[in-house]
Design brief:
Layout (H helix, E strand, L loop, with lengths): L1 E4 L9 E4 L11 E10 L7 H4 L15 E8 L11 E5 L11 E5 L3 E3 L6 H5 L2 H14 L14 E4 L5 H12 L3 E6 L4 H6 L4 E4 L5 H4 L7 E6 L3 H7 L3 E9 L18 E4 L6 H12 L7 E6 L3 H9 L6 E5 L5
Parallel strand pairs: 8-9, 8-11, 9-10, 11-12, 12-13, 14-15
Antiparallel strand pairs: 1-2, 3-4, 3-6, 3-15, 4-5, 5-7
Helix pairs in contact: 3-4
InterPro entries: Chloroplast_QOR, ER, GroES-like_sf, NAD(P)-bd_dom_sf, Quin_OxRdtase/zeta-crystal_CS
Protein name: Zinc-binding
Pfam families: ADH_zinc_N_2 (PF13602)
C-alpha cells in the first residue's frame, strides 16, 4: 500500500512510499480499514520527538490520526460491520493513518454521520472531542445537556481554527455566551457560527477589555499558547477556569496578575468513541457542523502540510487518499 512516512522522529517532513498492509489482531478489537480521508494535526510531526512512545521500535512513523474509511475486516463482537463507513481518531502510541489501509480499534471509532462527505467527516474527531473533554470533563462543570450552562460566559482563542470552530458551536448548544478571538478576515465567519462577541486579536488589548467584571468570563479555552495564553489570565473571573490545549497556563501567568481562585490546567485529549457518537447525533440533527478548509490529493501532501503550517487555515485541512492527480 502507499502511505506517508516520517523518515525519523526528528524530521519535520514526510515522504510518500510503499509499505506492507497491516494485519488486524481481532483479540485486541482491531479492524482493518480502507482509508478514504485523513486530517493532519498542526505540530504533529514534532510529537515523536517530544512525546516518546513506550516502545518506539514497534511504531512506524505514519502521520495523521484522524481517519475516515470503510471496515474491511472486523472482530465478530464488533459493533462495526464489514462494509460500514466509520471515522475516529486512533491512538498516538500506534502508527498513524495516512496510508491506504490502517488499523482502528473499537473504542476509537464511530459510525460516520450519513449527512457528511468523507472529507467533512474526518475533520470532526480530534477537534470536537478536544472541546467535549475540555468543557464536560476537565472544566469540572458536569456533563453536556442543552442550555445547561445558560448565564455563563466563555472565551475561546483562535476561534476560526479546527478546535475553535467546534468550541463555538458546542459551547453555544450548552448555553454558554461565547466570546471568541480571531483575525480580522475571520470575524464575520466566527460570528456566523454563533459567537455572541468576536474580538479581533490584532486590535484588542485583552487586559483592557477585561477590566470590568461584566466583561470577564467563567471559562477560557485557549488554543494558541504563549502570549495569547498569557493575556487570557486577565479575562477569567475569580473562581473561574482557564484551560489550554497548547501548554500549562502556569508557565505564562503574568507576574503582576493578582486574581484569586482560578483553576488552570493543560490536557491532552483521550480517545472516546462513545462521546464521538454523541457528537455524530448532534451533527445528524443539524445542531452543529464541521468546517472544511481544503482537500488535497495524496500526491500533493506537501501542499496540504504547508497550508496547515501557515496558520491561516479556516477549519481543517484534509488529504484524500483515493484522489489522483
Amino acid at each position: 500500500m502507499r502511505g506517508l512516512f516520517q523518515p525519523d522522529k526528528h524530521a519535520t517532513r514526510v515522504i510518500l512510499k510503499d509499505h506492507p498492509v497491516p494485519k488486524p489482531n481481532f483479540e485486541l478489537n482491531e479492524h482493518l480499514i480502507r482509508v478514504y480521508t485523513v486530517a493532519p494535526c498542526a505540530g504533529e510531526l514534532l510529537w515523536s520527538a517530544n512525546y516518546p512512545v513506550p516502545d518506539p521500535q514497534s511504531k512506524v512513523l505514519i502521520p495523521c490520526f484522524d481517519v475516515e474509511g470503510t471496515v474491511m475486516a472486523a472482530p465478530q463482537s464488533s459493533p462495526f460491520k464489514v462494509g460500514e463507513e466509520v471515522y475516529g481518531q486512533t491512538n498516538y502510541y500506534r502508527t498513524g493513518c495516512a496510508s491506504e489501509y490502517t488499523i482502528g480499534r473499537t473504542e476509537e471509532l464511530a459510525l460516520k454521520p450519513k449527512s457528511l462527505s468523507w472529507a467533512e467527516a474526518v475533520t470532526v474527531p480530534l477537534s470536537s472531542l478536544t472541546v467535549w473533554q475540555a468543557l464536560f470533563t476537565h472544566a469540572g462543570l458536569g456533563g453536556f445537556s442543552p442550555d445547561r450552562y445558560r448565564g455563563k460566559r466563555m472565551l475561546v482563542t483562535a476561534a476560526s481554527g479546527g478546535v475553535g470552530i467546534w468550541a463555538v458551536q458546542i459551547a453555544k448548544l450548552a448555553g454558554f455566551e461565547v466570546v471568541r478571538t480571531c483575525g480580522p478576515r475571520n470575524v464575520d465567519f466566527v460570528r456566523s457560527l454563533g459567537a455572541a462577541e468576536v474580538l479581533d486579536y490584532t486590535t484588542t488589548n485583552m487586559r483592557e477589555w477585561a477590566e470590568t467584571d461584566v466583561k470577564k468570563v467563567d471559562l477560557v479555552l485557549d488554543c494558541v499558547g504563549k502570549r495569547t495564553l498569557e493575556d487570557t489570565w486577565w479575562a477569567v473571573k475569580e473562581g473561574g477556569v482557564l484551560i489550554s490545549i497548547s501548554q500549562p497556563p502556569e508557565q505564562v501567568r503574568p507576574a503582576d496578575w493578582s486574581g484569586k481562585a482560578v483553576r488552570n490546567l493543560f490536557f491532552i485529549m483521550v480517545l472516546d468513541g462513545a462521546a464521538l457518537m454523541q457528537i455524530s447525533n448532534m451533527i445528524e440533527k443539524v445542531k452543529c457542523r464541521p468546517v472544511l478548509d481544503s482537500v488535497w490529493p495524496l500526491e500533493k501532501f506537501e501542499d496540504a502540510f504547508k497550508k496547515l503550517a501557515s496558520g491561516h487555515a479556516r477549519g481543517k485541512v484534509v488529504i484524500d487518499m483515493l484522489a489522483r492527480v
